[in-house]
Amino acid sequence: MDGEIEYLIAFSVNDAAGRGMAISLANMAKCEDVTHRSRDPKIRALHLCDDLRAVLAGFDEDVVFFDFIEEFRDVKYFVILSRHSSLTGMPTLTTHVPGNPWGKNDFGGKPWEIPPANPVLMWYFLKGLINRRARDGLLEFRVSYEVTHHGPTSITRPITFIEIGSSEREWNMLNVQRAVASVVIEGIENTLDGGSTKLCTVSIGFGGPHYAPLFTRRAIEYGECYGHIIPNYVIKELDLDRIKFITVRAIESTPGVERIVIEKVKSEIRKAIATIAEERNIEVISY
């Protein structure tokens, strides 16, 4: 590969959605299959994608247990291609940061641990998914951010999930896999060589439900690119000291954050978040 590798794009070979996106991406980006050259026993599929400055790698493990990708020291960023599951089964296309911003780790990772976000890439992914939904007639799909949740968490470089949900039907739709793969390619291309500088306001969200409708809307209408989003169902479980702790962690794990948007939380919680933000010259918008 000419030049520096910047991205590891990872997926589980046992995940129909992730595997399908990876196959489409490898074909569309003309990636070279080098699986036979890999000496890592964890790797089940390996491609070099020169134009994306990326390695595309498949593993047996479920993506929420991908903490071991931290061992890939020569890359700057991680992108995870994944299925999305929900009880409603609503067709969904999402992007988010992993992490456990509370004392639970029911779906991988460690409690109280959140890795660095890649807000600008997530913003490109969100906009790309919205455009593809319209362009490709995927109107049954909801497109949104998701809040910070699940593993892996023991990651020290920016990591981004992009997902197809929410049932086997959607996971296996080839046209959707191709559409999302194209979004990944375009998003990465847009961030190479510093092309993403100052196109959006790096932001953090507090409050709201799991699919973050307010923050999704503001991302498009106001050019806010979100990193970590801490939802109400987490906030309600935390005392004030833990609120302060996770606010600091979210700020530290959202590189370049300029704004915090708070949606309908108790006034003492809003004040605690705002005080920490203002001490760091971060703008606060409250609803």
Automatic annotation (TrEMBL):
Cofactor: Zn(2+)
Keyword line: Hydrolase, Metal-binding, Zinc
Annotated GO MF terms: D-aminoacyl-tRNA deacylase activity; zinc ion binding
Domain of life where this protein originates: Archaea
Catalysed reaction equations from the record: glycyl-tRNA(Ala) + H2O = tRNA(Ala) + glycine + H(+); a D-aminoacyl-tRNA + H2O = a tRNA + a D-alpha-amino acid + H(+)
EC number from the UniProt entry: 3.1.1.96
Record GO biological process: D-amino acid catabolic process
Cofactor binding: number and manner: Binds 2 Zn(2+) ions per subunit.
Pfam families: tRNA_deacylase
HAMAP family membership: Deacylase_DtdA (MF_00562)
Family: Belongs to the DtdA deacylase family.
Function: D-aminoacyl-tRNA deacylase with broad substrate specificity. By recycling D-aminoacyl-tRNA to D-amino acids and free tRNA molecules, this enzyme counteracts the toxicity associated with the formation of D-aminoacyl-tRNA entities in vivo.
Subunit structure: Monomer.
Protein name: D-aminoacyl-tRNA deacylase
